[in-house]
Write a structure and sequence with these properties.
- The chain is an all-alpha fold.
- About 70% of the residues lie in helices and about 0% in strands.
- It has one domain.
- It has 4 helices and no strands.
- It is elongated, with a radius of gyration of 18 Å.
Length: about 150
């Protein structure tokens, strides 16, 4: 393992995590605005409000999702998981557990919120994969995904 590879991973993982949480919050804010029946009145105002509330929402979502996400990312880096589907699955699962309340009423509004939350988790997983997940792994591996000598 080279020092430059380790330094690159130490910079890309936090950057990817920050961008993924921000993208999740902004996507969720835009998705929740579509629930408003008066959505089409002023699109510019709604876009500015969605961006602002998305940043605020990301600041609220971030602290709740950091611990399980860091555990997953550590495992992904050690095992060199680079598949898009792994990151999408984790984003979907994390958002489902973060936003779904098991005791809530099973009505259309709760279902719509859960679907929008899960879609935002997919967006977060994709953004992280684009920034840092494609090059995951601090240990170089061969074609069979076996670690090379350190």
């Amino acid at each position: 393992m080279s020092f430059s590879r380790l330094l690159a991973r130490l910079m890309m993982v936090p950057l990817g995590l920050f961008c993924a949480i921000l993208a999740t919050g902004i996507f969720l804010a835009f998705a929740l605005l579509t629930l408003d029946p008066h959505y089409g009145t002023d699109p510019q105002l709604h876009s500015i409000f969605a961006l602002f509330s998305g940043v605020v929402m990301a600041a609220m979502i971030g602290p709740f999702s950091v611990t399980p996400t860091l555990a997953f990312l550590l495992m992904a880096e050690l095992l060199s998981w680079r598949s898009l589907y792994i990151y999408l699955g984790f984003g979907l699962t994390l958002s489902l557990f973060a936003f779904h309340v098991p005791t809530e009423a099973k009505d259309q509004m709760a279902t719509d919120l859960d679907i929008r939350a899960m879609a935002s988790g997919l967006v977060g997983g994709f953004v992280y994969w684009m920034i840092a997940g494609r090059g995951a792994g601090i240990v170089k591996r061969d074609a069979n995904n076996k670690p090379l000598a350190l």
